[in-house]
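Appendix B. One record, verbatim.
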Amino acid sequence: SPAAGLTYPAPLSSTQLNATSTVVGNWSYNPTNGSVLNVGTYTLVGTFTPNDTANYTNATITNTVVVAKGSNNILFGALPIKYVGDAAFNLTATASSGLTVTYTSSNPNVATVLGSLVTIVGEGNTTITASQAGDSDWNAATSVTQTLTVQPALNRGLVAYYPFNGNANDASGNGYDATTTGDPGGALNAVALTQDRLGIGNQAYHFPGRIRWTAWDPVLSNYTSSWMSVPGTGSRLRNLTSFTLSCWIKLYDPINDYGPSRILTNEGDDYSGIRGLGLYYNRNSGFGFGVGWGGGGETSTWSGVPPQAGRFYLVTATYDGTRAAIYVDGQLAASQNVSYPLQSTKDLSIGRHVQGPISNPPGFTGEIVADLDEIRIYSRALSAVEIGQLYQQEAGNLDTDGDG
């Protein structure tokens, strides 16, 4: 009967080359043990040489073996997020056959593929398919697909991004989803979805805070509002050597709100201890940006123009390791030299006025009374040009001069 079959590139072995004799002697084979045969049907020749050549002669037998095509598999890992303007890059899928993998892109408006070289064309998603057709010895491999996501250039370096499109999820892909929380010991006024700067419902969050409260009022100190916290961000923020904070904000009563109030911060529960980064507003000094140092203080940069109630502002702060700057509606408002490494390991808070314990009045208990939207945190300092582009991109048809 035929010898046991092989699947390429398995070598011949004693499973196929297994002739026996009732006479003592030696077998030799052609092809030899260990030979790798291409796909096809082969004749195996076994030659027997007896030890007793006086009484026995050499003998030859034949058999057939069938070699089938080998299995061919593609290894193609997930693709990193790319950005408009990124350089072309090579795909690196491999086939178990060692044969060349070919690629296609489902959306040439996002990216094209020539050989293994991918060229970024525009933002969006495209499916990159890796294929290997096989050859005379290998079966065709099952194609493997991966999604290539190309984001706008302005998204490069995003640590977290909260567009607040019906939820508080992080749209950067880094998984830093925000959750609503509140101080203990008081009535909880929940953060709630509201209209964004363009008047579209459920596309921003309203932070209820408190209007016209007194900093030292023990009754008000027993009540609190809610804010958002972002678990797991503490160590990530501390490791930033440069960064950008950006947020759209509409204030409801900035003149009567005790400040400075925090829009974004990782400074913990009060002014004591290690400080971090913060984006603020103050009824007298406008919007501010603080970079903390390990001794419990910080250097703050203020826009100098008190914010108005009832209109949205885009507030953007940058720090490049040596200089802090704050922009309002895409325009530079103030900057100064700052050189402090971040020290705080506290998680990020959104919309929290963290100044004094609620449970131990007198304390500063109010969170901000504001609508917040399009919160961005970057691991790099955006340029002035990029900040202007961000404002133009997100302002849309927003009435920024109040003339309707």
